[in-house]
């Protein structure tokens, strides 16, 4: 921690600060500059009480942390890139993985038709919401366990693995029973109890970024998974809230190189929510692949105009197959398979 | 719903849109303007499937909802202002209620000392966190049930009512047993399962605004409480995330007149988190009272510099007593008691 | 400046950093912590080249400034609160000043009617736009010099002083000839050439905060006025852009205590743009007065429904007179006149 | 315009709204829905007074525009993609154009060395700031005319065309004399007088997006250029302000497909400011090319660690040459040259 003192404070006031720093277990180190005196507090910021409280002292101007708060998710802690095994597939390896499927599981016909189509076009993982978090209590909340059973059936029939959202601690075991990857949605990105419950199932966890989350907060949320003994964490950017009204969210592709620099965990891009419009999803996928994403999570629906939730952002089956073809030169350019 | 068509589309394309609108249960009403044709879709937007999906159709430029999505929290549904009874106290009545106490319950001495002091200075409700949501898994997470028991003891000794945070569905009954008001924190403001669990305890619920939440989303989150048969909801502004770095959050006092216009539920202001600095809390309280807040939620600590969490934003016992005195002329000017 | 080095770098890499720090004129001071080595660079950050460039060096993790960049606007540089004389009126003194008038000057009848009404209700300064910055080139851009002449006529007839916006360097002398205070609008808050031109006229300058400006940037923009030999600067908060859609902007009243703490310059609140709706302006004014604003800048129009620009946010003459009455208890509570 | 009336208003109140709509030159068209009555106002929203003022009427709930406000920049007005000729080069054609050079022109050696190196590596346009907008008055403000002359010399020696920033109306002719493209910076993106002055020089204009600008506002700012008889406009994304602190700004690559859909003007990406760190620029360039950018604007410096401004985000000469090689497969994949 670095503590910047106010200019022209008395020796007595300065000593009080130094005393408190020592009391909290740090060793103070004083540097006198031209206009300000700065105190470095030597000690492990993660195991000691935070010194941020000093920021409210009359003689202190600001307090700045020096260490990064995240540890297990950081590349410092784990130099090599982590890979996550999902059955026979590897996320974070040379092969770009495609997770595709409808926003919500609606019925058997819709899901099977979509599952067969995305498998044929090259996807390896089936996405589909059985429990849906909806802004309004009057909107469709998902089929629940019935939806999970349909996903399991689609897995049996197509060989696709399954990713679906977990939104209640109370469902953790149930969802883990039917799903190969647990998805934590943006609105629950700092629902730490849910993260712990997800981690404890032992299944791989895909953690979406919150709507206005800083990358440091995202990494720390991921730390809740790894520190609960689950190493199989992947991050997923799905768009942040900005002032823009043209799209629902702004997909932040710069998270790809940043997360890869700061963390060893694989990085997934979900362009559907970020674009909020099917006609922009394609360009987002090109960019994501070029910038090094390990996997894409894409909403696909047999009849987007009839989808029960978020229809505007889902590709048709034909649109998805076309996208898979068009992605090939970018996958090659990025040195992926 | 209003559907704006693209300019110069064919009659056939237009008819397809009209057909889909009818299929989804609305009655289309066509208006031809100078550059655009606009279709009004007559029907209840809350009970029918959303037409937003039309936004992805090639012939549609935009889709705009006309109705408000929230219902039970709205002033339209309930013209008179709601009051919430907490024991002998009323929130939303003529009396300005003061909820005060430490950010976290740390130990018996700290809590009792604070409780007695805030009661003496005029507070009627004791706040204190027993379960704390922390950005990092390595920070102090609260005393848990032990903290709840200390709160209950403070209630017995001082006559203050208790408000404390609920952050896990699994704790709903436990926390409700010890607390008079359940607080839902900003990070859980769209944790809809937690809102339902809180509503079902029957206790009054204080819903903090999420860090980047729109007022419409906040009202809809509140709708989850009322639609689960709990009419005792109050909203609490605690600061939104902005680009500003001087304070941790930006307290949005304009929520007071807006929530009072849109909703019948009482409005509480928590200036401590918004200011992030004890030295700004006082001015925030003046403004909140002048603008019509029904209650204030204030962090107070016997020794702010030693607080285990968020010390920088807590008032000392003396600071709190002084604030209570200074508020008097503003309470009178606002026509409150 | 504080330079945080990456963990486990070689002695040689560390020395290169120290060498560069010396080369740029600072004296390096090394502190070895538990996980990181931190270097304090002693020297005046305002007169030396910035060390921020070190942030891109492979061996450096982050660079943090210690000094504040603003100087003349700061309270450190000028302990007592500045007052600005505008004719016989004082801004920043005990008297709360009211600046009121239409968003745009439309014609003589509209302006004179408004000027007489606001003067009668207690305003001392007349606002009115002659040059209007408009998002679209197809919107009304103001009457220009004709508008300035009408403002001058209103001043002669009513004794009110005049504030109007300057939006082009080329108009600086012209606008200064007719106006007692020059207003710099939010979109030009970092148009530094315009700030310099305004400062050089010698007239008091009211600097609105930019739509997404940090307080530090605002203070630095003000520094362009004071460092061009014009001490008569006041800051004006008018609402920042947030995600909220209920109001056009979010009025940040916390700027009042913050600016008063950091700077000696007077602080003005413009609630009209922040609220974006006349029906919220009244509550905003209560809050602004309670929190210590030195002046209010209020849009008033004889017939708001016919206003040529921004009608939705203008009070009627009757609404303004009523507000002036209602403000009295809050002015008294705040210890102002 | 669509005007949504409040529920349950009287016939008389409704008629007043209809009367006002007619008075302002529109033809009202009433639609009665389940809970709301909606009025369509038929008429050209660009030539008539705005009806937004009705939003403040007691009987009106909201007012929604139907038409887009921009016209000349829109693809509706100009179906084919515009190309801009800069000497022998074309921006917006099949060839990806590279604009490269230092943030600021510092001296002859620095500029010539950079110009020769970027020309050799494949750039066709030289960037370099002679007038620099700086947040603080105490930072380096650029070499001014001397810098322009050095740019002209570099053009003669290397055959590169020149782009440089215009930041004062007073400099328009001077800068146009030395430069092939005029750059309008983010802080001046809504300095409409500057946009008009730039347009009138007749030189191509590159308009950067403001820090918190919506795409509609950006297009409207561009409309100021085209409506002043200058068809040679290109848009340039350089990163928007978000809550993220890891990078200085967040580069919004989704602007590429959006601007190309809404407008016929070419689209340029400046990754240097968005990344704020040289080590992220490379990945941003891959993404920009994959998503269809027409040109890249890249900061390059012979010795980034010594740059006088924004050093942290400039590539070295070697880094730039390497990037140009690495871009090749992505350029091919995107079907460009």
Mind telling me the C-alpha Rg of chain A?
23 Å
Q: How many DSSP-defined strands of chain A?
A: 14
- Assign a percent range to the helix content of chain A: 25-40%
* Content-based structural category of chain A: alpha/beta
Sheet with the most strands, sense and barrel status of chain A: 8 strands, parallel, barrel
> What is the beta-strand fraction of chain A?
15-25%
Count of helix runs of chain A: 10
Shape of chain A: elongated
**The CATH homologous superfamily of the largest domain in chain A:** Aldolase class I
- Summed up, the domain count of chain A is 2
Extract low-pLDDT stretches of chain A. none
Features:
four-stranded antiparallel sheet; Alpha-Beta Plaits; 337 residues; alpha/beta; elongated; TIM Barrel; 2 domains; eight-stranded parallel barrel; homotetramer; 18% strand
Description:
The structure is a homotetramer of 337-residue chains. The first copy, chain A, has 337 residues and is of the alpha/beta class. Chain A has 2 domains: 2-64, Phospho-2-dehydro-3-deoxyheptonate aldolase, domain 1 (Alpha-Beta Plaits, 2-Layer Sandwich); 84-333, Aldolase class I (TIM Barrel, Alpha-Beta Barrel), CATH 3.20.20. Helix content of chain A is 33%, strand content 18%. Chain A contains 10 helices and 14 strands. An 8-stranded parallel beta barrel of chain A has the order 7-8-9-10-11-12-13-14, surrounded by 7 helices. The first copy, chain A, has a 4-stranded antiparallel sheet with strand order 2-3-1-4, covered by helices on one side. A two-stranded antiparallel sheet of chain A has the order 5-6. In chain A, strand 10, helix 5 and strand 11 form a beta-alpha-beta unit. Chain A is elongated, with a radius of gyration of 23 Å. The two termini of chain A are 45 Å apart. The mean pLDDT of chain A is 91. At the A-B interface, helix 5 and helix 6 of A face helix 5 and helix 6 of B.
């Amino acid at each position: 921690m670095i503590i910047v003192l106010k200019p022209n404070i008395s020796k007595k006031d300065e000593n009080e600060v130094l005393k408190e720093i020592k009391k909290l277990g740090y060793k103070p180190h004083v540097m006198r500059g031209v206009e300000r005196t700065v105190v470095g507090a030597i000690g492990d910021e993660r195991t000691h009480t935070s010194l941020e409280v000093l920021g409210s002292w009359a003689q202190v101007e600001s307090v700045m942390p020096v260490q990064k708060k995240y540890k297990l998710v950081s590349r410092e802690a784990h130099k090599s890139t982590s890979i996550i095994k999902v059955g026979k597939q590897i996320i974070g390896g040379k092969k770009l993985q495609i997770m595709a499927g409808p926003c919500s599981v609606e019925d058997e016909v819709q899901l099977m038709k979509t599952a067969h189509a995305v498998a044929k076009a090259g996807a390896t993982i089936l996405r589909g919401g059985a429990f849906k978090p909806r802004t309004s209590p009057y909107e469709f909340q998902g089929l629940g366990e019935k939806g999970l059973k349909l996903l399991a059936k689609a897995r049996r029939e197509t060989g696709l693995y399954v990713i679906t959202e977990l939104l209640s601690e109370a469902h953790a075991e149930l969802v883990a029973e039917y799903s190969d990857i647990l998805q934590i949605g943006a609105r629950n990105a700092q629902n730490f109890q849910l993260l712990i419950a997800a981690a404890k199932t032992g299944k791989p966890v895909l953690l979406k970024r919150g709507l206005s989350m800083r990358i440091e907060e995202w990494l720390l949320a991921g730390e809740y998974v790894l520190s609960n003994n689950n190493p199989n964490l992947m991050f997923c950017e799905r768009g942040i809230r900005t002032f823009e009204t043209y799209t629902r969210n702004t997909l932040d592709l710069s998270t790809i190189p940043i997360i890869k620099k700061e963390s060893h965990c694989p990085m997934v891009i979900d362009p559907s929510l970020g674009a909020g419009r099917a006609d922009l999803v394609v360009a987002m996928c090109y960019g994501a692949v070029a910038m090094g994403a390990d996997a894409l999570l894409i909403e696909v629906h047999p009849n987007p105009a009839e989808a029960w939730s978020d229809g505007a952002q889902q590709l048709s089956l034909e649109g998805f197959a076309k996208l898979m073809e068009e992605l090939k030169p970018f996958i090659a350019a990025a040195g992926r398979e």
